[in-house]
Structures are given as structure tokens and as C-alpha cells.
Amino acid sequence: MFYYLSLFLTPYVGFFNVFGYHTVRAGAAALTGFLFCLLAGPGLIQWLRVLKAGQPIKKDHVADLHALHKGKAGTPTMGGALIILAMLVSLLLWSTLTNRLLLIVTAVMCLMGIVGFIDDFIKLKRKHNDGLSARAKMAGQILTGLLLGLFLYFFPITVGSSYINSDHILDWPGLVEALKAQGSGEPGSLAAKHVWGRLSPTLQRRLLAASAGQSLDKKSRTLLLEELNAILDERDFYEEGIWRDTPLNGSSESLLNKGRGDLSSRQVAQLNRLALEAAFPDSIARGARDLHTKVEIPGFKGVLIPLGPFYILFVILIIVGTSNAVNVTDGLDGLAVGASIISLMAYTGIAYVVSRVDWSEYLYLIYVPEASELTVFGGALLGTGLGFLWFNSHPAEVFMGDTGSLALGGVIGSMAILTKQELLLPLVAGLFVLEALSVMIQVASFKLTGKRVFRMAPLHHHFELKGWSETKVTIRFWIIAILFALMSLGTLKLR
């Protein structure tokens, strides 16, 4: 709301221009989410108590653990509804509601929250820890992942190369000679002559003065790159008659079929990039294609794994995996929500980086133009998470339940997917990976050998049974989550 208000009022009152900045709106969204939780939290907790929406505690599983947790019996659950409600209010006030990525991650949060709510509701009706069957819960998670995967496959959030940097120039001397030929009146393609005519007189003189076969000086290179990138933004650059004898490659046909007047600024840049590649095929590298179905390998410069249609299955795997990992971590007061905030703050920073063409270019990351609004989403979740933690800290007044844990897990997975940093997820959410692995190792060991590796899984219960206090386990696990998040951010420069 405030973003649109700024568009209307800025011409009259300059102050409102600040609401156009993502960082300002992210901070405001965080404050709004935090205050909403503080104000609405007590009423929701009291309402849940009236409904007798208390958490049942198992007595027949591990006697020692029941002794530690029996005091939690009756604590209101379904508190994740507070997180989702606070997020929706905060985003309604501070986000750009037309941003596709924001709508996608919000939809995943709500869908997974609905799955978790149904599970919590059944548990409360039965007064037992068994809610939805494992098959039914998995079906809800898979359906959410499938919808997300299909959308991203048919409506890409990334674009082909829409800028040119020095690494994209394969042959500097060859490019200079091709351009000089047009300035000297030598025979050449109409496309190359068209490009020459778009260059400034200053750059033209520099190119004509360059020695044959020699590369340009640094200042001339910089100027040439700046002007080529400026050409990419020109909506009238591509002319069908000029490129009739210089066919474009890649996705030009689908772009042209839309009609140049209907292309977005990013699509115009992509079309013009394809035109430049066609004009100088030996000098300008072909940009990456089908980035929306490719996965970037952290630590390697420009190494992508093409998945094609299998990317949809990959998305399903991420959503199911992260939601279940957060779900099994939600066993101690404040543990899951605190660790989720840490992981999501890492991805919020990454979202801001990949939304900027200059930073993503510098760090060799896939450029995701619309990801900037995910910083506002991340800010809202930071404030909302801290507000919920106010009531969920030990001794907890409310539990998030599956309503919250599945929603947060879906959000973490979505942020990994929407920032095109999917393979960084095991590091960003390293604590959740450890928790999930402890369960898998425990189950596999017991089935294969009849012995348990841990006193109890997930891992946090193992340390509880070793004598660590609940608060100590939670804080130490938060520290581990912070270390994982910092390591993940450190890998961005390793290319």
C-alpha cells in the first residue's frame, strides 16, 4: 500500500519517495510484523486456550523425554497462524503486490500453512499427536511443490543474458576491427553498420584510432561496454529489415511473436543482446539459454546443471525436503523459528544481490530481476519471526505447530529456488539438514542393525537426554545455524 502511495504522492511531497526503496520497506515490514505479533499474540493465545487447542505430549515413547516435557502439555499450538497472519498484513502494507516472486513465495507459505493447519486440527480433535497420515501430508507437500515447479517451468523468472560484460567479449581485437570496418566505409553487414551508427562520436574516434590487431586500452573497453549495454535498453534498436540477412538465434522468435511493443524492458534487453550476438558472432559470446531450468553449482564460475523438465521434480524435492526438515526441528521452545529466521536472513541478502545486475555480474550469479521484492518479504519474516519468538521462547506460551513449521519450511525452500541458489540450500539451512539426517540415520540404523546411533532423534532430543538444558540446546543450535548461514554467504565470492 505504501509503495503505491509513494508513486502517487512523491510528485507533491518528496519525502514519500523513500517508500520506493526496498531497504526502507523491508525495515518497515519487519517493524510492522513484530508489532503486530506483540499486539495480536496475547489475544490469539487466549483464544486458543479457550478452544482448548493444547499440545498433547506422548507418554509412551521415551520416559526420560516425557519427564522433561510433561510441563508443556496443554500449551496452545497452531501459533503458526499468527506468523502467517502477521506476514500477510505486513506485506499488504509494504510490498509491491504485483511482483511475481513475492506472490509465489506468499502462496507457498499459505498452501503449506493450510496443510499444517489441517494436520494440527486433526491432532487437536483426536487429542493425540497423530494428525494427517504421512501419505496425506506428503501429498499436500508434493502438490505445492508441483504447482510451484510447473509455474517456474512455463513462466520463467530468469531471462537470458540481458547485459554484456568483459567476459562476454570473446575477441576484443576482432570486435574492434569489425566496428572500424563500418567506420571506414568497408563492405559489411547491415547489422554491424547499424551498431556502429549507435555509438557515440567519441567512442567512434577512439576505435578508429586503435592500432590494428591490438586490444583496446582499459578506458576504451569500459566505454565500449557501457555503450553496448546502453544499446540493449533501446526499444527501437532491433529492426526486422536490418537483421533479415543476419538471423538471430536463441529465444528471439518467441520474443518477436509477442510484439516488440508488448515486451518488458528486460525482454527488450534480451532481444537486443541476441541481435548483437548475431551481428558479431565471432566476438560476442552467446548468452546462457534456459536459465530457469538450470541449477548453479556454488563455488564454480558459470557451471550450470541443465535439468530441463526434470527441474519440476527438483523443485518438488526441495519443497518436501525443507518443509519436513523444519517440521522435525520444531521440538524445543524457539528452536525452529529462530533457526528459520537465520536461514531466511541469508537468503534475503542473496535475493538483494541477485536482483542487481551489477552485483550478480560481479559475483557470477544468475541475475533474477524481480528478486528485489523478496528482501521486503525477508524483512517482514524477520520481524514476524522475532514477534512470535517473544511468546515462543522458553517457557513457551504458544507453539507454532505444523501450521508454522511447514509454512516456514516451504518459504525457505522457495527462497532457495526463487534466488536460483538451490544447491546452496544445504549450507544455508545446514542445521535443518543435520536434524533431518539424524532422523534418517536413526531409522536406517535401527532397521538394518537393530541398534540406535542417537539416544533419540531428531538430534536436539539426543542432547536433551545427554543432560543439556532445553535453553542450552536451543542457543547452541542457533549458533550452529548462524555459522552455516555465514559460510553460505562466504561462498558467494568463491568463483
Your description of this structure?
The chain has 495 residues and is an all-alpha fold. It folds into 2 domains: 2-158 and 306-493, no CATH class; 166-287, no CATH class. Helices cover 63% and strands 1% of the residues. It contains 21 helices and 2 strands. The chain has helices spanning 2-9, 22-50, 63-69, 80-94, 100-126, 134-154, 172-183, 190-198, 201-209, 218-232, 252-258, 265-279, 310-329, 335-354, 357-363, 373-392, 401-418, 425-428, 430-449, 459-465, 470-490; strands at 294-296, 304-306. Strands 1-2 form a two-stranded antiparallel sheet. A hairpin with a 7-residue loop joins strand 1 and strand 2 (304-306). Helix 4 (80-94) runs antiparallel to helix 5 (100-126), helix 4 (80-94) packs across helix 17 (401-418) and helix 5 packs antiparallel against helix 6 (134-154). The model has no long low-confidence stretch (mean pLDDT 88).
